[in-house]
Amino acid sequence: MNAIEIKDLSKNFQYKAAVSSLNMTVPVGAIYGFIGENGSGKSTTEKIICGLLPKTSGTVRIFDKDYMDEEVKSQMGVLIEAPGCYANYSVWNNLRLQADNLNIKNPKEEIRKVLRLVRMEGAASNKFRNCSLGMKQRIGIAMALLGNPKLLILDEPINGLDADGMRIMREILTDLASKGCTILVSSHLLGELEKIATHYGIIRQGRIIKEMTAKQLDEECPIFVSLRVKETDQALSFLKQKYQKIKQEENGIIRIYDAKSTDEVASYLYSKDIVTEEISSEKISLEEYYINLMNDKEAI
Q: Which residues on adjacent β-strands are paired with residue 186?
C-alpha cells in the first residue's frame, strides 16, 4: 500500500492545463521531495491531494482510499503557503483554536506534544506576530501535526530560513519520518532537500517526468575529479589523451568523469610538467542532476 497514488490526474483552469495526466507514487514512510520550477504544477497537485482544489479528471488515492474520504482527510496534515494564524494571538492560543476546530480530545496534552516535536516548547506564550520566519514555519507544522496525521503535505517549508532554521527543520522532518509519518515536501532548495529525502518526484509542465529513490539518484550521480591549473589548454590536451569523459566549466574548472582518483590525475599531469592548483573528488548534486534533466540532457 502507498501513502499517495495518483493516476492520470489533470486540472484545467479555463483553457489552461495546470496539471496534465500526472502520475505519482509516494510510499508509506517516505520523505518525498517534490521538485519543479515555478508554475510546473506542484502547488496545484498538493492542493488537489488535500481537497482544496477539485480535480478535472484522474484518480487520487490516499492509503488505498479515495482522497475525499472523511477518514483519509482526518489522517492528513497540511502546510501550504503560510500558516493560518492570528497575529495578535499567542502560539498556544492559535494552536488551541485549531485543536478545537479539529475536536481534539485532551487538547492541552496534544498541543504540548506538537510544540515539543517542533522545538517550540519555550515559545508557547509568544505572540505570533513577534515570531521569526523560522518559528512561524515551525508553528505551521505544529498546527498540521495536531491530530497525529499519518501524512504531512508541506509546500516550501524550508525556503527563506537561515542556516540554523534549515537545520532545525531538517531535524524535525527526519524525526517525524522516523516515527512513521509520510511527508510530501516541495522546495526550491535542492541542497537541503537532498539531505533528507528518501524519494523524489520531478514535475515539469504539469507532468511527473521522473520518480526515483535517493539510492537511485546516488547511482545516477557519478563521482568526478575536479581540478584547476594555470595551463588550462595544455592540460586539456594531455588529459584528452588519457581520459574520455572530460568537461571544462566556464570558471576554468576541469572535470574528469572516468578518472580513478585525484592522485592518478595529479601524478599524470605532473609527469607532463603541469602542476595542479586545486584538485578534489566531488559528486554531481541533486541540483545539477535536476538542471540537466530540465535541459533535456543526459546526466553523465
A: 34, 155
Could you tell me the residue ranges of all domains in the chain? 2-212, 222-283
Helix (H, G, I), strand (E, B) or coil at 27: strand
Q: How far is CA 45 from CA 19, 188, 225, 272, in A?
A: 7, 16, 39, 56
* Amino acid type, 298: E
The arithmetic mean of pLDDT across residues 202-217, rounded, is 95
Residue 167 cell numbers, joined: 537545520
Residue 165 to residue 142: CA distance in whole angstroms: 15
Given a cut of 50, whether residue 300 has pLDDT beyond it is no
Q: How many CA atoms lie within 13 A of 135 on its CB side?
A: 16
Residue 152 CA to residue 173 CA, distance in Å, equals: 10
> What is 2-212's CATH number?
3.40.50.300
